[in-house]
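Quick note —
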Amino acid sequence: MTGLEIGLISVGMIIFLIYSGMHVGIALSLVSFVSVVIQTGSLTLAMKLLTLAASDGIADQTFAVIPLFVLMGLIMSASDVGRDAYDVGDYFLRPIRGGLGIATVSSNAVFAAVTGVSIASAAVFTRVAVPEMLRLGYSARFAVGTVAGSSVLGMLIPPSILLIVYAILTEQSIGMMFFAGIGPGILLSVIYCLGIVFMAYFTPGFVYDKTGRFSDPDAIAKSNPKDEHSLSQILIKFLPLAGLVTIVLGGIYGGIFTPTEAGAIGAMCALILAVVRRKMDWKAFWKVLLETGHITAAICFLIIAATMYSRSLAMAGVPTEIGALVRTATDQFLLVLLIYIVVVLILGTIIDSISIILIMVPLFLPIMLGFGVDPIWFGIITVIAVEVGLLTPPLGIACFVIKGSLDDQRITLGDVFIGAMPFALMMLFVLALLTTWPHLVYINQWM
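Predicted structure written out below.
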């Protein structure tokens, strides 16, 4: 059996086991273990591979960045920071047609800069933004779709868990991945906002509910949030957010501290803010710590399994054979990239984001490097393509989280998926832009 055959069979088996209900980490490690046994005929060698992967896979201190940023994000989520971000956006943007949708996108972009977890954004803004949008006459599908679409910003705008996992897996600088994520994150946010304004003017039946409180969309624009919040109150809500973003990201890009140190400082500042605002007691803090441990353990287990998988592929010579096959079949880089993106989009409909990165990147990164591709750019392309899967059936995790967080049972899961579809299409548009003009990944260098 050739290395290429082993690689193709292993990928097929992993997808089959995952789709059958097996945990991703177990599927990866099991298939890797069996693959090494088949290649070497030695059970002992396969056991040693398992042991080394477990000990070496997450031994580097760089992995400390994962629990620290997860902890910071969960504390900020528990501190009603999402509600504050939405209040700020709502105050300034409600007068615009489709303004609450734009406010949701803008608030999620800010929230992403202090959490880095898409699922947290989806859960928070489902409770904060959706009821307000429904009250003011927006359609249910538009409301939940806007939350679903903007929640993916948490995996692109740093600090992002997906960017951290990609950086660790490919041995890239976490700081550089964060830096590269800013421009595309802003670009996607702007495209979302422009898309919302376009829909509000040209497809008002999708954006507004004619049976809602306002029958005329212009009536929504005339509603005045200043009755609820004064400008000084809004500024008080915004300053902690701006301060935390400045401390964490400014510290990294300014060379004051490393990403790991930034995670620790960010978590400490978030905890101080939560205590000062009386949003965190010992019981709530213990709950956050437990959830941080659960998330970190799950991610680290996946990374260990991915280390086994990568080593088994390398042992079989899969990356080399696939690279040679691709270069023999075609020398068209865009065709190879298109195939990669299509495969990732298909996988996004059945398995979660981290799993796709752990499965696909070890296979395709060597091929891309053979074409002289910048691995940082390739990482951003991968993350965006993977994140489309959060919005597409049958496994769109963000859509399931939104449905589970809704108090209104009249809104079905189908409504969530339909509402998210325009935003998935906008993500594909941004993906095409970044593929056509790779330098847009570093657009923040021009600002």
